[in-house]
Amino acid sequence: MPTLTIRVNERMHTISAAPETPLLYVLSNELELQGPRYGCGLAQCGSCSVLVNGVETRSCVTPVSAVAGKSVTTLEGLPAWYAAQKKLAGAPELHPVQQAMIDEQAVQCGYCFNGMIIKSAELLSKNPRPSEAQIRSAMNGHLCRCGTYPRVIKAIQRAASRMAAEAAQ
Amino acid sequence: MKRVRRRDFLKAGGALVVGFHLRSVLEGQERGGTAGPPDPKQVDTWLAIHADNTATVYIGFAELGQGNSTSLLQIAADELDLGMSQIKTVRLDTNVTPNQGGTYSSASIQRGGPQLRTASAEARQALLRMASKKLEAPVERLSVAQGVVSLKDDPKRSVTYGELVGGKLFQVAFTGSAPVKTPADYKVVGTRVPRNDIPDKVAGRYLYMQHVRVPGMLHGRVVRPRGQRAYGAGARIMEVDESSIRSISGARVVRRADFLGVVAENEWDAVRAARQLKVTWDSTPTLSGNEALHEQMRAAKTMDRVVREAGDVNAVIGAAAHVTSQSCRGPYQAHAPFGPNCALADVKADSALVMCSTQDVYGTRNSVSRLLGLPAEKVRVQYYEGSGTYGHSCYDDVAQAAALLSRLAGKPVRLQFMRWDEHGWDNYGPAHVGEVRAAADASGKLMAYEYHGWQHNWAGVETSAQLTGIPAAEWPPAAVQGVSALNCGGMYAIPNVRLVSHQVPAKDYLKGAWLRSPLDLSFSFASEQAIDQLAYLAGLDPYEFRKRNITDARWLGVLDAAAQAARWTSGRAGTNRSDGKVATGRGIGVGTHLASYGAAVAEIEVNKETGHVRAKHLYGAIDAGQVVNPAFVENQISGQLVQTASRMFKEEVTFSTTNVTSVDWNSYPILRFEESPQVTAVVVQHLDQRSSGAGEEVMAAAAAAIANAFFDATGVRMSEYPFTPARVLSALKRA
């Protein structure tokens, strides 16, 4: 099995996998990460989302070889990714949007929240004060079966306010 | 195969799980040395007090994302006088936790709550007796806070629970006779304690079933046709070409009769081998196709049962001032958990360990033990939360399949269903035909009501078992699979009633089982449209009409709560109808599942040119008696409202004459962010009433409210859901 090196959550990992192996299986089995998770294997649901160079990407259909030389961030690495973006001295325990999901008690089963959080972190990095319509549009490719959409929208708004307040300090 | 001594196996069973979070997995499971269920008549079965003055409560219910792993602890904390930070629970496990029955029918709080409260009261009583001895003071002079027992008149003299029994067994019988606290004394029950599972869930620390791994395991996949046939037909292999996966050296085929799978050390090898394996399946048509489904049901030879009969419907209906009849159809709908089911099984010659996301660990233990030919007590089942299941999704099927793969491969096997396995081989919520006739007098008083419902029973044998040669079988008849005396007019005072269930033979249809609020959406869709139509014919506001015909105070209370939340203003349906391209409408409805009370108001928008319907705002109220944590029930209501919108507007299992064709999120669309309504959730709290379940009780009402809002907007009654654009345009055209 060929070996290749990938950068995940700012650490280099040498793994042995067929180059066409979807990144998701490498993250789950070789790196034992619990953020990205299998949902459909078809890029339809957003369960497996990660950031690749800051862009939300479906790891279930991304060959592992395609991320060589790029930087992959999973749910676990999101607070450090946020700290680097905002040039904070240290990583907070949680990304503001993770904290907002707790504050809004937005979660039910929580299985889709990997994708919800990854996608909303990406959104807020590009658009710090999204309107409700912009949130709905950005999040539209992420499904939830428990029906948490209304609370996820509120949590993203809450995180945006908090990030704006922090930036103003 | 090497024989493993039972003790060694169980030791291995407990220590086997490595993967992630070994500590949290093993914590508190140390008592799993013997097969359960532990004796419910012992206090030690229900809880343990530790030396550090904390407690572990053993709960027999599954956390499914509804928060019961927190709310059941609230009950125990209250009765034990412990703080929430002093109390925790452990993994559901047939060798560890008591058998409280399955986590369905919204039972955790209504059935499990009183058991935990009584057990905790019994433990508290024993602790007070010990403290009385230790502090040399009668029990009446003692008070407890945060697990510290002290003298009421001399608080410096105190002893902790931990000091009294820490680490030791109570060895006290659970008699059920200890007095429990009254609502006036509750400190934790009724408050909005935050969920204890959410921080780990948002941080990526929560161990879902899909991430459980054990050393030496193989990855497995089942190989089945994409989409099931008629339940009775199962699937039949004509030919398997094993050479077709020769290029994947790590993968091999395992088979028993028509049960077919692949296993490999590398997960991707298993995935692509399952995809690449060439199999010829019997493709003889066994289904009607979804277009002809309801005609097939209506024409079927049925088993009929009169569910309720009062007065003489026929005599009254002809002479009544206002009469309506509605004929309505509901589709098959899928559980479609967001993450397909997953299980890990380690089957040895004389024992087995199965980890899965079942709603009922003891039920799964029984079915797996039968399939493997092992005594039930030789099978240990551990629960790991997967993604939301909303009823009987493929969790039993995947557990059985993993057990079969492990036995055939001779190693532990982790089986992750693919999206098409879950979507295509689900136990769908059964389709329904409902025909209702109802009548009211000139003053708007309901006089007669008749409901005929056609549906089939649930499947009693899982696909995996069936493919090994066990014939398909129906569940024993149960009341919840037939016409509901509650949702079919049961909330109204009607003198003449006739309810008839027509059961069609399950084996001729898709495999079915309970889907959140089973059949209730279909019942209410038909029934509450008929009631609404009578209000319209009588020239009355639909909310007012219902109030006139309901006498039960709790039905009235929940109806008022929903109407007030929506700021309902009086008016007959259709009063504000517009001729524009986009029409708006509002509707109201009542309904439940088994024992609670639900009411809803819907505000919707219908685009008459495109046929798109969208719920703008849904209001839902539940009276579930004593609500342990109102915040959790609000979240449940909110989820039920969104899921109901999804089921009413989008969801429909499609199938050809040969197999199911809705096998992913494109072919089985669900509601998305841009279509999501705003929601308002109202909890009608009755601390003095027994708790009665809140996981599914507002969906029927919400379905009815949506249908009635459609009429308000358009003047057209929909006879079939989901309200797809094509169906809406065709209904508007017919009108």
The CATH top-level class label of the largest domain in chain A:
Mainly Alpha
- How many DSSP E strands of chain B? 24
Major β-sheet profile of chain B: 7 strands, mixed
Query: What is the arithmetic mean of pLDDT of chain B?
Result: 94
Overall domain count of chain B: 3
Give the CATH superfamily of the largest domain in chain A.
[2Fe-2S]-binding domain
Measure the end-to-end span of chain A: 52 Å
Q: What is the CATH topology of the largest domain in chain B? A: Aldehyde Oxidoreductase, domain 4
Strand content of chain B: 15-25%
Question: What characterizes the major β-sheet of chain A?
Answer: 5 strands, mixed
Helix content of chain A: 25-40%
Which descriptors apply to this entry?
heterodimer, A: 169 residues, DNA polymerase, domain 1, 2 domains, five-stranded mixed β-sheet, 14% strand, B: 735 residues, alpha+beta, Aldehyde Oxidoreductase, domain 4, 3 domains, 20 helices, globular
What is the fold's blueprint, element by element?
The complex is a heterodimer of chains A (169) and B (735).
Chain A: E1 3-8, E2 11-16, H1 23-30, E3 49-52, E4 55-58, E5 71-73, H2 78-85, H3 96-103, H4 113-126, H5 132-139, H6 149-168
Parallel strand pairs in A: 1-5
Antiparallel strand pairs in A: 1-2, 3-4, 3-5
Chain B: H1 6-15, H2 22-26, H3 43-46, E1 47-49, E2 55-57, H4 68-80, E3 87-89, H5 107-135, E4 142-145, E5 148-151, E6 154-160, H6 161-165, H7 198-203, E7 218-222, E8 237-241, E9 251-256, E10 259-264, H8 267-276, E11 278-281, H9 293-299, E12 303-310, H10 313-317, E13 322-330, E14 342-347, E15 352-356, H11 361-372, E16 379-383, H12 395-409, E17 413-416, H13 419-424, E18 432-440, E19 446-456, H14 463-467, E20 496-504, H15 520-537, H16 542-549, H17 553-565, E21 582-591, E22 597-607, E23 613-623, H18 630-649, E24 678-683, H19 699-714, H20 725-734
Parallel strand pairs in B: 2-3, 7-17, 15-16, 19-20, 23-24
Antiparallel strand pairs in B: 1-2, 4-5, 5-6, 7-10, 8-11, 9-10, 12-20, 13-18, 14-15, 14-17, 18-19, 21-22, 22-23
Helix pairs in contact in B: 4-5, 11-12, 15-16, 15-19, 18-19
